[in-house]
Task: structure prediction
Amino acid sequence: MKRLTLFFFLTIFSAITFAEIITLNTPNSQLIVKADSATVPHILYYGDKSANPTELENAGFEAFPAMPAFGMIDMIHLPALQIQFPEGDLNLDLRLADISHATTENAEIVSFVMTDKRHKFRLTLFYKAFKNTDVIETWTEICNLEKKDIVLKRFDSGHLFIDKGNNIWLTHFHGDWAAEAIPVSERLTKGVKTIRNTDGARNAHLDAPEVMLSLDGEPNEACGRTIGAALCWNGNYEIRLNIDNHDNYHLYAGIDPQSSEYVLSPKQTLTTPKLAFAYSVEGMGGVSRSLHRWARECGMMHNGKAVRDILLNSWEGIYFDITEERIIAMIDDIAKLGGELFVMDDGWFGDKYQRNNDSSSLGDWVVDKKKLPNGLQTLTDAAKQRGVKFGIWIEPESTNTKSELYEQHPDWVLQAANKNLNLGRGGTQVVLDLTNPKVQDFIVNTVDKLLSENPDIAYIKWDANASIQNYGSTYLPKHKQSNIYIDYHLGLISVLERIRKKYPDIVIQNCASGGGRANYGLMPYFDEFWVSDNNDALQRIFIQWGTSYFFPANLMAQHIGGSPYHMTGRIVPIKFRADVAMSGRLGMELQPKNMTEQELQQCRIAIKDYKQIREIVQLGNLYRLVAPKAFQVHPEPLPPAEQDIVALMYVTDNREQAVVFAYSLSQFQYQKPQRVKFSGLDPEKQYTLKELNIKAGEKPCTLDGKTFSGDFLMNNGILLPLNGDYASRVFLLN
Result:
C-alpha cells in the first residue's frame, strides 16, 4: 500500500506544471532561481540587489542548473550529482516536483523537491537566506526510494554559477601543521582548479575548506565584488572551480568522492553538509564580517555571542610532567596574574599504562594516582578557592595500541582486514571506529563520567592528533566499507550532539594538532578552536591573519608563548607576545615560574587591559587595515622602502568604540613609516585614543589622549609609532 501511495504521489506531481522566479534576499545580496516543472531549478543570478529577472534575461544572462546532474548536462560540464541505480544505470532524469517556503526568526528557507522520471529517487535542494547577514546556505537531501541499495558516486552540497565572469581571482588557504591558513591568491584560468583534503579525521591543515572569489580582478580588502564560500564539513572535501566553454564560472563544493562512494539503503536519506556563500561589494573584509556575524548569531558556533575567559594552559609549561604540586602552583600563578581559567593538558591519566609521553594510555580515562594522588577534586577545589575555573584535556576519538582500551576492544579501532595497522603519533596511536554505535556510547559515557564526577570542570580541550590511516571497519558490512569517511563524521556529530544536550554550558575547545579542525562542520558544538600549535608571536601574526578571513575573534584561541620559543628559537619581547595574543581570545601557554618579574608585570597589565576591550575584540566587526607584505598579491621587493607593518581593528556595531592593533615585522634605518587609515568608524564622531598594554615602566606614546574625527582617521589616517624590532601598539578608541 505504501508503494502504491508513493507512486501515486509522484504521478500527481509529474502532471502538475508550473513556473516561478524565486528571489532569496539577504540585507545586501540576492540569489535568483528559475523554477520550472519541465526541468530542474536554474541559477540565474547571484550578487547585489541591483538586478531583477527581466533585466537579466533581456541582457542575455544565462541560467544554469542549480544542481547539475550526470545524464542531464553536456559532458563538457562537471556534474554535481551522480547516482548508480540497482540495475547499473548512472543517468539521472530529474524534474521539479514541488517548491516549499518556510521562514524562521532570522532566515527564509526555500526547498526544491525533484524526482526522477525513471527511478524511485528524490532529491531536495535547500537554500537558506539570512535576514541579519549576507550569507546564504545551500545543501541537499538525497533519498533512496528503490527496493535495493543505490550508490552515490558524487553528491556535492552545492554549485554556484557566475554568468560571464572576467578576470576572477581565487584566494584559498594553504598551510601545514604549525603554519596554518596562509592565503594564496591566483587568477582563475580555463580548466578545472581543484582544492581538496584527504586527512580523513581533520581537514584544515594543508588546504582549508573555504575559498574567496574576487570578481573584479585582484583581491582587495576594502572594495570590489567578492564571494566567500565555506563548506561546513569536518571530513574529506573537494572544491572545484571551472570556466566552461561559454566563459561562465562554476564553483562546486562537497564531500570528496574518492574512497567515499556512499551506499544508500532503501528508504535511507543522506543530508549533505551545508555550503555557505557570502557576497559583498566591500571586498574580502566585507565577506569576513558577514561570515563572522553568521557564525556568532546564526548557530554556526556554540554560544556564539559569549565572550571567552582568559586562561593558562599547562602544555608548553610542563608538558607531561604533571604533579599535584605543579598544577596547583600554576593555578595560583594565573589567579595572581588576573586570569580566569586554568586548563590541565595531556598527561593526567592512565592506570596500567602511565601517560608520560604520547605512546600510551589514550582511551584509559582514569586519573593517574601516582601523579595526582588526591584525584581531580583537589585541583578543582584549589581553583575554586582562588576564584579560577578549571579545565581539562582529552582526546576521546583515539587510543594507543599500548592501552587497556585497545587490549579489551581491539575491534573498536578503524582497521583494514588482514593488514597491519598503520600507527600514528608516538608510534602507537590509532583512531577509534566512530561508525560503531558502541564506540560512540563509550566516548559519550567517558565525557559524562568525567563531568558528572567532577561537576566543577568548566572547560574541555578536545584534541584530535591523528588522521585516518587505516581504512576499514569491523562494524560496517563489506559492501558499505566506502561509507567509512562519512559515517565516521556522522558518528562524531552524533556524539557531540548527545554531549551538548546534557552539558550545554561547558566550554569546549576544538583542537586538532593546532588548527586542523578550523572549519564550520563541527563548530556548532564547540565554543572556540585552537588556531595553531605554533605560539611563536611573529609567525602567529600570519596564521591568525589568514584564519580571520572566515572565523571571528571569539573562536580563535590565541596564547602568549614562551621565549625563546621552542619551535623557532626566536626571542620575542613579552609586550609583543601579549599584543599579538590580545587580538583574539587571550590566553597563556608557558610556565609562569620561569618568567622574570618584568614579564609577569607585563602580563598583569595585558590581562587587566584586555578585560576592558575583550567584548569589542571578540564580538566586534573586523577590519584588516594593512596586510603583511608577504600576503600582498604584488609585494614590494625586500628590504622595503616602507616599513613592513600589520594593522587590524575591531569596531562595535554602534561604532561607538574600536580597538586597533599594530605590529612591526621589520626594522630598517631608511624605512619610511606608514600612515594607517582606519575603517568602519562613524565619520561624525570624535574618537579619543587610549594606549593599552603599555610597556612596564614606560609612558604611553604621544598619540595617547589625542582626539580625531572618524572622518579624519578613515580618510587621512595617522602615523603609528612603531620603532625598533618587535614594536607593537594597542589603542582603544572611545
About this structure: The first helix runs from residue 2 to 15. The chain has 13 helices and 38 strands. Confidence is low (pLDDT under 50) at residues 1-15. The two ends are 70 Å apart (CA to CA).
